[in-house]
Specification:
The complex is a heterodimer of chains A (193) and B (251). Chain A is α/β, with parallel strands linked by helices and 193 residues long. Chain A has 6 helices and 13 strands. In chain A, strands 2-1-3-4-13-12-11 form a 7-stranded mixed beta sheet. Chain A has a 4-stranded mixed beta sheet with strand order 6-5-7-10. In chain A, strands 8-9 form a two-stranded antiparallel sheet. With 251 residues, chain B is an alpha/beta fold. In chain B, helix 2 runs parallel beside helix 3. Chain B is globular and about 45 Å long. Chain B starts with a strand and ends in a 7-residue tail after the last helix. The chains are: A alpha/beta (193), B alpha/beta (251). The interface between A and B is medium-sized, with 36 and 32 residues.
């Protein structure tokens, strides 16, 4: 199986690669369109700021490619937000895979949300053998509101989407690569989709 | 619900763990990778590694160590000690660190915080602040708390947030090593002042101290070294204890 991690200069993608190695998958880091298109599975990670990330993606046409992929795709954190149609971060138009507008937390609570929070209302095979209310590790200031595409829910000030699904596209707001055993199981599930 | 975090801190010298660690031969306590694995298995929510030598020659060894830790640990970890440029940060993040912490170099050159936050994102920039209470005033200290400055702790905390810090790691030099509890009053003040997470450090001696630092000190996370390294407090028992006091923990 060929699994690629899209490398567009966004933050720490080594930890995603290492997490996959721990479950026996040797992933390739690449920004090459042909390699990505021909992979069996694609992971689309991301940390950092949305508008500059979109600029990077547009440079070599990754933004167009990702939304046309047919194999299972897993967006992580900022990757998930960029798969939505819009984010308030930098007033940025994104890829529009999920018809969702990403919002900034507007709360008395601290922003970003940093740390471990529960995920519940788990749906799809991505969460096979993952318990309801399991903990996952989050670091984010923006969130996707609850919608028909939500396959996991977390509460911080209000309920929001901890994960999304549409056709071959999966995405999670939390970092499975840093979410201990539950995160490892989720990555395994993605590999086995 | 978002949980409070428990963070063991490991001092690193020449890519080995130092400072009295006693695991009664359970593991090679000098091996940071083994310790990191042990802590991540036993309930730690995050780890902090502080390179206490932090010389240029040791940078390469540190990057190699960070990569080994990243390969073996499935929880977030922060690396600090002697970081003074975007180049330093870049090497550590590329080696697999999730966050870096900057301290003295940020005090000497506050602009560094802006630069790092813009380049790498606030989420991976922890600003560590060492301060000591002298009479009624909390003053920021440099070089592991040895060198006093005239900078007020609370003004500095507000400034680092404004410049783009993602979290503040505050160590009270008055409390560090005393095992008499954390600096809850100052912590609560910082926590009220800034809207980013505050990690408390210095003074952990028993489980009630952790309950107090969350309830009274309003901290988001608590960091400690020797109580964990000497097995005086087990993280699993500590988390159960805190959970029983209605402090939300990942157990």
């Amino acid at each position: 199986m060929k699994l690629v991690i899209i490398d567009y200069g966004s933050g720490n993608i080594k930890s995603v690669k290492f997490a996959l190695e721990r479950i026996g998958v040797n992933a390739v880091l690449t920004n090459d369109l042909v390699t990505i298109e021909n992979a069996d599975k694609v992971v689309f990670p991301g940390v950092g700021e949305a508008s500059s990330a979109m600029v990077e993606l547009k440079k070599n046409g990754l933004d167009k490619l990702i939304s046309t992929l047919k194999q299972p795709v897993l967006g992580i954190c900022l990757g998930m937000q960029l798969m939505c149609e819009y984010t308030e971060e930098g007033d940025t138009c994104c890829m529009g895979i999920f018809p969702i507008k990403v919002k900034k937390f507007n709360t008395e609570l601290k922003v970003p949300q940093v740390g471990w929070n529960n995920i519940s209302k788990l749906k799809t095979d991505l969460f096979n053998q993952v318990n309801e209310n399991e903990y996952a590790y989050f670091v984010h200031s923006f969130y996707a509101p609850w919608s028909e595409y939500s396959i996991a829910q977390t509460t911080y000030d209000k309920e929001f989407s901890a994960a999304l699904h549409k056709a071959n596209f999966y995405a999670c707001q939390f970092h499975p690569e840093k979410s201990s055993h539950a995160g490892q199981q989720i990555l395994k599930n993605f590999v086995n989709l | 619900m978002l949980t409070k975090r428990i963070i063991p801190c490991l001092d690193i010298k020449n890519a080995r763990t130092v400072k009295g660690i006693n695991f009664k031969n359970l593991i090679d306590a000098g091996d940071p990778v083994e310790l990191a694995k042990y802590y991540s298995k036993n309930g730690a929510d995050e780890l902090v590694f502080l390179d206490i030598t932090a010389t240029k020659e040791n940078r390469k060894a540190l990057a190699g160590l960070v990569e080994k830790i990243a390969k073996n640990v499935n929880i977030p970890f922060t690396v600090g000690g002697g970081i003074s440029s975007a180049g330093d940060v870049s090497i550590l993040l590329q080696s697999g660190a999730d966050k870096v912490s900057v301290n003295s170099s940020a005090v000497k050159n506050p602009e560094l915080i802006n630069r790092l936050a813009n380049k790498f994102g606030s989420q991976c920039i922890v600003v560590a602040i060492d301060a000591r209470q002298i009479n009624d005033n909390w003053k920021v200290h440099l070089v592991g708390g040895k060198v006093p400055t005239e900078i007020d702790l609370f003004e500095w905390a507000a400034e680092v947030e404004k410049r783009g810090a993602g979290e503040i790691l505050f160590t009270s030099m008055n409390h560090d090593g005393t095992k008499n509890g954390f600096a809850n009053e100052a912590l609560a003040r910082i926590s009220k002042l800034v809207n980013i997470p505050v990690i408390a450090s210095g003074g952990a001696g028993n489980m009630q101290h952790f309950a107090d630092v969350f309830k009274i000190g309003k901290s988001d996370a608590a960091l400690a070294a020797s109580v964990f390294h000497f097995n005086e407090i087990s993280i699993a028992e500590l988390k159960q204890f805190l959970n029983n006091q209605d402090i939300n923990m990942r157990v």
